Amino acid sequence: MKIGIIGGGNIGGALARMASAAGHEVTMGLRNPAAATGDWTVTTMDAAITGADLVVLALPYRALAEALPPLAPALRGKVVIDPSNALNPDLSPMALPDGTSAAEIIAGMLPGAQVVKAFNTIFAANFAPKRLERAGHRLAVFLAGDDKAAVARVADFVASLGFKPVARHTLTAA
What we know:
Structural class: alpha/beta
Largest sheet: 8 strands, mixed
Strand content: 15-25%
Shape: globular
Helix content: 25-40%
């Protein structure tokens, strides 16, 4: 599978390592591609989206309002994984409009994309093969999305990395 990862921080880098090791073709899109390293292609954010089967938005939630509008046309029709959490700089929960989830806000910025919330309950340090099993059980990745086919596609990706996908909710719960 071709995976486009937007952002090269802790989550983006960890997912790139795991996806590459699992045999996926990874392209990481960064604002400054020259500053990156890794065993994957590094390019611009727009180029990482082109041709990707799945796109991971591995940016802090606070950065998405600025980063997504120029990327929205390229993300139309794509399955987009959102691992972000709506947190303030001090890691306290960010206030969101009543009855709205962070994932719904992101989906609203990406018309025509199928947004699936995933990987937001796991610290980057756990994105390693030796950390995926606990007492004989695989580490769970909870999935939420409004498009069942998109959720199934992300579940396949999650399983290919060695996690246990658990799809339970729509974006209203994410």
